[in-house]
Amino acid sequence: MSLHHRQAAASSGRTGLLPLALLAILASVAGPGGQESHAGPPAAGKPRVFSVRDYGAVPDDATDDRAAILAAVQAARQAGGGTVTFPPGRFCLSTLELTGLARVTFAGAGRDRTTLQRVGVGPHPLIFRECRDLVLRDLAFDANGCLNYGGTYFDACQRVRITDTRYFDSNTAARRGRRERTDIYSYVFGRGKAHHEDVVITRNLIEDLQFEVDYCRRARITDNVVKRPTSTAGIGTFSLQWEAVPGEDLCGEDFLIARNTIIDLSDCYTAIAVHLDPQYHRDGTPLEGVTYRNLRILNNTIVYTAASAGRAGRAIQVGATDSSRQTKGVVFDQIRVEGNRIYVPPGVQILNDAGSEEVFILGNHSRQFSGGPDFLFTHLTVRNNTLYRDGKPDAEFVAWYARGAHCVVEGNRVRPYRPPPR
Ligand SMILES: [Ca+2]
Predict the structure, then answer these.
(1) How many other β-carbons are positioned within 10 Å of the β-carbon of residue 227?
(2) How far is the CA of 212 from the centre of ligand 1 (A)?
(3) Residues of the chain with pLDDT > 90: what percent?
(4) What CA–CA distance (Å, rounded) separates 53 from 244?
(5) Sheet strand arrangement including 152-155
(6) How far is the CA of 71 from the centre of ligand 1 (A)?
(7) Cβ proximity of 408 and 380 under 8 Å
(8) For 172-195, how does the pLDDT look when each residue is reduced to its tens digit (9 = 90+)?
(9) Residue 344's closest CA among 410, 416, 409?
(10) 92 CA to middle of ligand 1, Å?
């Protein structure tokens, strides 16, 4: 069943089964610690809109609006769900952590009109833990000089939709001259006690930041634009298996990463990455038993620019993050990489860790492991991708370092460079 149909079925089920819906509403009214009062279920059909202005938020005055935003969110929670609205303007937000929130939409007046600016010492403006049925739409987040990780953070959440937002950094100058670069996030779905489920990220604009969805079942990441991504990957999913997990560790299943555009890889290792990261546990033992299943990376556009000359990251990598570590029992099952287009202007090289040029890397490209490739790809399809690049008309741009079964690598072409269509 597709993600779309699964969601449609879930929502029709909610409206069709009133007793279950009432139970769900009543269960969600009590927040973490049960400190909230027991409001009854909302009146049927009545829109529940909670403007942060009504709870004391003041735009464009450079004061923290955290308390007012929290009050609006709590009102929505007590009503059994609703829409928290942000009028035009810039609101300041120091870290707001929300647990067990359900059926709440955060809506601005448009991503060019409403901005939530991170302020204070915390790297995250918002943290959502064990939340479900969330929507973030039509607003912008400003990372405001965040230097380490950060981002709007999700932990074990279900049914999250992020659409038509912008995430940018008004203070990228703060990063300059730093010795080490770290990941710096827009949205990040981390690895928690349970998988994320049914995450939709679509039609967003991400600038000078990256985003990541880890440990998830059913992610649909489509039609986003990521400009100048930072560090590890523009769009990434990582294993984050810090402690050993017995048996199969399903780190990602049913991902659709399609029709995204990633522009300028001069400060980023990989445009789209499915990575074993870290490649060893906290105690130093090798990663073991990681499985990714049914990942579709389709019809994305990856655009290198002249700024990338001499330091450009890979276009797509499914495998190891640094290839210097041996792993055990890693399986990539049903991976499709099809119809992607990569534009590399003259003078730009796409270098792997060993300093040779590879556009797609599948597996672990280290040659130092005497036992041979330690990754298994089953039902891999890499087909009909196009690299627009001068000088290497016959180059093979798919580098595959793994054992395989039922794998197809065909129809991938190198064409003379031309700029991407606008
Ligand atoms: Ca304010």
Answers:
(1) 17
(2) 29
(3) 65
(4) 47
(5) 96-99, 126-129, 152-155, 185-190, 210-213, 231-238, 268-276, 314-320, 360-363, 398-401
(6) 14
(7) yes
(8) 999 887 767 789 999 999 999 999
(9) 416
(10) 5
64 Cα: distance to centroid of ligand 1 (angstroms): 5
CA distance 34 to 75: 15
Decide: 373 and 402 in contact? Cβ < 8 Å. Answer: yes
The two beta strands, 314-320 and 360-363, are parallel
For residue 119, how far is its CA from the centre of ligand 1 (angstroms)?
Answer: 11
Say if residues 122 and 94 touch (Cβ distance below 8 Å). Answer: yes
Q: Which residues contact 284 (CB under 8 A, 6 or more apart)?
A: none
Tokens describing residue 110: 């448009």
- pTM of the full structure: 0.88
CA–centroid distance, 190 to ligand 1, in Å, is 29
For residues 236-256, give the mean pLDDT.
94
- Ligand 1 center to 174 CA (angstroms): 23
d(CA 89, ligand 1 centre) in Å? 9
- Expressed in angstroms and rounded, the spacing between residue 116 Cα and the centre of ligand 1 is 10
Residue bearing tokens 């906290």: 282
Averaged confidence pLDDT in the chain = 87
Map residue 269 onto helix, strand or coil: strand
Amino acid occupying residue 237: T
- Cα 415 from Cα 233, distance rounded (Å): 25
Sketch out the chain's domains with CATH numbers: 3-415 (2.160.20)
Distance 282 CA to ligand 1 centre (A): 42
Q: Are strands 341-343 and 386-388 parallel, antiparallel or unpaired?
A: parallel
Exposed/middle/buried for residue 37 (C-beta within 10 Å: 0-12, 13-18, 19+): exposed
